[in-house]
Specification:
Helix content is 40%, strand content 14%. By secondary structure, the protein is α/β, with parallel strands linked by helices. The chain has a single domain, classed as TIM Barrel (Alpha-Beta Barrel), CATH 3.20.20.80. An eight-stranded parallel β-barrel has the order 1-2-3-4-5-7-10-11, surrounded by six helices. The radius of gyration is 21 Å and the shape is globular. Bound molecules: 5-hydroxymethyl-3,4-dihydroxypiperidine. The site of 5-hydroxymethyl-3,4-dihydroxypiperidine has 8 residues, from loops.
Length: 446
């Protein structure tokens, strides 16, 4: 039976562009404002212009968090609300919004976990090279320090960047996310500058002092070879290096892994590595699935992803449901990385939910996904992994990037016409766990 420590942190995560709605208040455009308005980029032609209209419905959403009973809420600030051009003078109106949010959380007894960057780079900085430019990391550090100066005394945690690896791969190599780049050198430089931004932000906030604890958020996926051959094994090691270890190792070990080093050739990283290798109070781990890979002569990078077999259970994203991979990932952090304090900062699932009926949405698959992953977290804790919290992704169905609103991850259903919120059964299930019910109980037939 899973047993969570009494001080275990239960939370929910969201991200600015996915929920806020643009609200015409003088915010500057971000790369996602630009990208989402380009024809053909988003599956259903939507954008974050309205999203969940969260900024106008903030009290309602904060009340949902209070009903859920969570002790913490992870949200991101939109850089362009505070600095429309990326730098310069802080915009008071932008700060007012986030003060209102932070104060609203504190008034409800919910600890604010602020993530500084969830992929919405100011377009003005993109126009100067974006993450391919080292200067962007310096701008990020200034932005981080400004948020720390103005809000730091009321924040529980400040997290630097959300999933720099996903942002780099999807946005700077595959071109399916903003800014839509497909250039290998841009990708390589972006990875490194995102790492540098993490280190510089941590150092600036550490120097400022203040009560908030500091960390960052990585998306980690165990990578497994599709076959038994050595070439598939090598392909898996390469993908593991590029996806997981290019972001883990500079931060936690002060170096890039040897595997995949050739891809970094031409980038001078030596002077930056000590700047990236900063102490953290918490490592945020976002976990959804694992990757299976095989060697491929046709692929320019020598490998290709293998989709889950027909026999595998998958979510609406096509992602394999493998809670044992979460356990393996946590075990690896313990064994190979010195057991850092970890919080699962995102975990959740998209399914094609039915329409609300009688004030609820029946979503048994999401309940099961939640329960099985919480069991894995409980097992990891029992094995001595230093896991201190769990944040469900996400509160309300929202703008799922290139998928638009076609994929629903929320514990709360969003009516796309009226924006009305209706809790799902998974909301009740998570609320029960937060109040002490063991995840196993959610798997029992009712
Ligand atoms: O919605 C995203 C989130 O923005 C980052 N992590 C993965 C989620 C699901 O795709």
């Amino acid at each position: 039976m899973s047993d969570f420590p009494s001080d275990f942190i239960w939370g929910v995560s969201t991200a600015a562009y996915q929920i806020e709605g643009a609200v015409d208040d003088g915010k500057g455009p971000s790369i996602w404002d630009t990208f989402a308005h380009e024809p053909g980029r988003i599956r259903d032609g939507t954008s974050g212009d309205v999203a969940c209209d969260h900024l106008r419905r903030m009290d309602e959403d904060l009340d949902l968090l209070a009903d859920l009973g969570v002790g913490a809420y992870r949200f991101s600030t939109a850089w362009t609300r505070l600095f429309p051009e990326g730098g310069g003078r802080l915009r008071r109106q932008g700060l007012d919004l986030y003060e209102r949010l932070v104060d609203g959380l504190l008034a409800r007894g919910i600890a604010p976990w602020l993530c500084l960057y969830h992929w919405d780079l100011p377009q003005a900085l993109q126009d100067r090279g974006g993450w391919a430019s080292r200067d962007t990391a310096l701008y990020f550090a200034d932005y981080a320090a400004a948020v720390g100066e103005h809000l730091g005394d009321r924040l529980d945690h400040v997290l630097m960047l959300n999933e720099p690896n996903v942002h780099a791969v999807l946005g700077h190599l595959l071109g399916v996310h903003a800014p839509g780049s497909t250039d290998l050198v841009t990708f390589r430089d972006a990875v490194h500058h995102l790492n540098l931004a993490t280190g510089l932000g941590l150092a600036r906030l550490r120097d400022l002092g203040g009560p908030a604890r500091l960390g960052t958020v990585l998306n980690l996926q165990p990578v497994v070879p599709a076959g038994d051959g050595e070439d598939d094994q090598r392909a898996a090691e390469l993908l593991d290096a590029v996806w997981n270890r290019w972001v883990l190792d500079p931060l936690l070990r002060g170096r890039y892994p040897e595997t995949g080093e050739a891809l970094l050739a031409g980038l001078d990283v030596d002077a930056d590595l000590p700047l990236i290798h900063q102490p953290i109070d918490v490592l945020g781990v976002n976990f959804y699935t694992r990757a299976q890979v095989r060697a491929s002569l046709e692929s320019p990078v020598g490998l290709e992803l293998v989709p889950p077999s027909d026999a595998s259970e998958t979510t609406a994203m096509g992602w394999e449901v493998v809670p044992e991979a979460l356990l393996a990932q946590l075990q690896e952090l313990k064994d190979d990385y010195g057991n850092p304090p970890v919080v699962i900062t995102e975990n959740g699932s998209a399914y094609p939910d039915p329409a609300p009926s009688g004030g609820r949405v029946e979503d048994p698959q999401r309940v099961r996904y939640l329960a099985r992953h919480l069991q894995a977290v409980g097992q990891a804790i029992a094995r001595g992994c230093d896991v201190r919290g769990y944040f469900a992704w996400t509160l309300v169905d929202n703008f799922e990037w290139a998928e638009g609103f076609t994929r629903r991850f929320g514990l709360v259903h969003l009516d796309l016409q009226t924006l009305r919120r209706t809790p799902k059964r998974s909301f009740d299930a998570y609320a029960a766990v937060v109040r002490g019910t063991a995840p196993e109980a959610l798997l029992e037939p009712t």
